[in-house]
Design goal:
Layout: H1 2-9, H2 12-38, E1 42-48, H3 59-68, H4 74-87, H5 97-100, H6 110-132, E2 141-146, H7 155-163, E3 170-174, H8 181-193, E4 200-206, H9 219-227, E5 232-238, E6 249-258, H10 263-267, E7 269-273, E8 279-283, H11 287-306, H12 309-322, E9 340-343, H13 348-358, H14 362-375, H15 382-392, E10 401-408, E11 412-420, H16 446-449, H17 451-454
Parallel strand pairs: 2-3, 2-4, 9-10
Antiparallel strand pairs: 1-5, 1-6, 4-5, 6-11, 7-8, 10-11
Helix pairs in contact: 4-9, 13-14, 14-15
C-alpha cells in the first residue's frame, strides 16, 4: 500500500492536479482580497452651496420679516428676540428669495419649493463636476435627500434629466430624514459599494425651507424660522482603488441610532399644521432629552469600534472602581482616537451640549460654531460646512481622523468616522470670509438695532 501512495505522489498527474488546486486557491484568495478593497468608500470631493448676496438675512431684513407676521403680539416679538440672540447665527446667513421678497404667505406652492432647490442643485453640481473633471454620465449611483419636499417625478429624477445621466444609474430619493440625512445617504452608498465594484456615487443633500416657513404664532413652531437657513452640499464618492490617490477622505466607520420607538423622541420634532392650518416645523421641549439619549446610544456602539484597547480597558477599570453612572461622560476619552470633531451646527445649545459630553475644547468646537454663525442651521448639509471650515483653516493633515456627529428628527443620532488621506486646504465656500473667522467676539447686532424690544426683556445689553 505504501508503495502505491509513493508512486501516485511521484506521478506527473498528481503534481499537475496539485498545481491546479493551489492555483485556484490563490485566485480565490486574490479575488476575495480584491473585493474587500473594492468595498472601501472614498470621498473624492464635495462642494457646498452659497446663495447670492441678495438672499442674505441681515439684521434689518430679519426684523422686517418678523414684523410682517401680523399674527404676532408683543410677547411673541420678545420671545423671538431671545431665540435669535441665543441662536449663534450672524448676519450673513441666507434665506429663500421669495421670503426675502415678502412672499412667505404664497410659499406653499410646489413650484416655489422646486425653484428653491433647483438653484442650489445647479450651483453645487455644476461646480462639483467642473472641479473633479467628472462627467455626469460617469455617475453610477445617485442619492438625493431633501426632507421636507416630495415631488413627482422625484428630485433625483430632476437632476438626472438636467444632466442627462445614463439609463442604468441607480437612483435613490430620500425624504423625511431630517438633519441627519446626509450620513444616511452615505450609509446607502457604502452598502451599495459592497456589492458593486468600481463605481462612482453622487450624493446631494439639501433642504427646502420656503414651503415650510411658519407664519403663525405658536412659539414651538416659530423657533425653526430663527434657526434654519438655505444650504446644500454635493459629494462625489467611489470605491475605485485607482482613485484613492486623489481622494480626500476614507470612510472607516458609520453608525446609525434611531430612537423612534420612544414616543417622546418620535414627537419632539415634527412637520405639522397649527390650529389655523399653517404648516411649520414643531420643536418640542423633549428635544434635548431625546438628543441626549440618542447621542449616548450612538457613542456606546461607536466607542469599541474606534477606541484603542488600552483606552477601553482604562474605562472599564474606572467604571468598576468608581461605580460611575452610565452616561456620555463615563470616562471615555474620544480624543485618543479623534483629531477633529465635526458637530452638526443645529444651534448653540446642540454644539455646547456635545462639547460638554465629550470634554471638548473651544478649539474643537470652533468649526461648528463658525459654520452656525456664517451659514446657520442648513439641516443635513450643515456637517459639510463645518468640514469645509476645517479644510479652509488647513487643519486637516494626512492621517488625521475626523468624527462627524449629526442629529435628526425621528429621533436619530448618526456618526461617521473618516481618515484624511492627504493634506487638505481647499477654501471652497469659505474662500471670501475664512480670514475673518474666528472673530474676537460673536456680536449679535439684533439687540442694538431693536433696542426698544431689548428694553422690554430681561436680556442684558451685549
Amino acid at each position: 500500500m505504501e508503495s502505491f501512495y509513493a508512486s501516485v505522489s511521484m506521478s506527473p498527474t498528481f503534481w499537475f492536479l496539485s498545481f491546479v488546486i493551489l492555483f485556484q486557491l490563490c485566485v480565490f484568495i486574490l479575488k476575495a482580497y480584491s473585493k474587500r478593497l473594492n468595498q472601501q468608500c472614498y470621498l473624492l470631493d464635495y462642494v457646498c452651496f452659497k446663495a447670492s448676496d441678495d438672499r442674505m438675512l441681515s439684521t434689518e431684513m430679519c426684523g422686517e420679516i418678523i414684523q410682517r407676521n401680523k399674527n404676532l403680539g408683543l410677547e411673541d416679538y420678545k420671545f423671538l428676540l431671545k431665540v435669535i440672540v441665543g441662536s449663534g447665527l450672524g448676519e450673513e446667513t441666507y434665506g429663500p428669495k421669495d421670503i426675502i421678497d415678502g412672499k412667505e404667505l404664497d410659499m406653499t406652492s410646489l413650484n416655489s419649493g422646486l425653484a428653491e432647490v433647483d438653484v442650489a442643485f445647479k450651483q453645487t453640481l455644476d461646480k462639483l463636476f467642473s472641479k473633479t473633471k467628472m462627467h455626469p454620465s460617469d455617475i453610477d449611483i445617485l442619492v438625493v435627500n431633501v426632507s421636507m419636499l416630495s415631488a413627482m417625478p422625484s428630485l433625483a429624477s430632476r437632476i438626472i434629466n438636467r444632466y442627462k445621466m445614463k439609463q442604468d444609474v441607480k437612483v435613490f430619493n430620500l425624504s423625511g430624514m431630517g438633519c441627519s440625512a446626509s450620513l444616511i445617504s452615505l450609509d446607502m452608498v457604502r452598502n451599495l459599494f459592497k456589492i458593486h465594484d468600481d463605481v462612482t456615487a453622487l450624493v446631494v443633500t439639501s433642504e427646502c425651507i420656503g414651503p415650510n416657513w411658519y407664519a403663525g404664532n405658536q412659539r414651538s413652531m416659530l423657533v425653526a424660522n430663527c434657526l434654519f437657513r438655505s444650504g446644500c452640499c454635493a459629494m462625489l464618492l467611489t470605491n475605485k482603488r485607482s482613485c484613492r490617490a486623489r481622494a480626500k477622505l476614507k470612510l472607516k466607520v458609520l453608525l446609525r441610532t434611531h430612537r423612534g420607538a420612544n414616543d417622546d423622541a418620535y414627537g419632539c420634532a415634527l412637520q405639522q399644521e397649527d390650529e389655523q392650518g399653517l404648516t411649520g416645523f414643531y420643536l418640542g421641549k423633549s428635544l434635548p432629552q431625546a438628543a441626549t439619549e440618542a447621542f449616548i446610544c450612538n457613542l456606546r456602539d461607536l466607542a469599541p469600534r474606534i477606541l484603542p484597547v488600552m483606552e477601553l480597558a482604562r474605562y472599564l477599570v474606572n467604571r468598576f472602581l468608581h461605580k460611575k453612572s452610565d452616561s456620555a461622560q463615563a470616562g471615555v476619552d474620544f480624543k485618543v482616537a479623534v483629531d477633529h470633531f465635526c458637530i452638526h451646527p443645529g444651534g448653540a445649545a446642540v454644539i455646547n451640549g456635545v462639547g460638554r459630553s465629550l470634554g471638548l475644547s473651544q478649539y474643537d468646537l470652533e468649526p461648528a460654531r463658525m459654520a452656525l454663525h456664517r451659514f446657520g442651521n442648513t439641516s443635513a448639509s450643515g456637517l459639510w460646512y463645518v468640514l469645509g471650515y476645517m479644510e479652509a483653516k488647513k487643519r486637516l493633515k494626512r492621517g488625521d481622523r475626523v468624527l462627524q456627529i449629526s442629529f435628526g428628527s425621528g429621533f436619530k443620532c448618526n456618526s461617521a468616522y473618516w481618515e484624511v488621506l492627504r493634506g487638505l486646504e481647499d477654501k471652497d465656500v469659505w474662500e471670501d470670509c475664512v480670514d475673518r473667522y474666528p472673530p474676537e467676539t460673536l456680536v449679535n447686532p439684533f439687540l442694538e438695532k431693536y433696542a426698544w424690544i431689548r428694553e422690554l426683556t430681561s436680556l442684558p445689553p451685549m
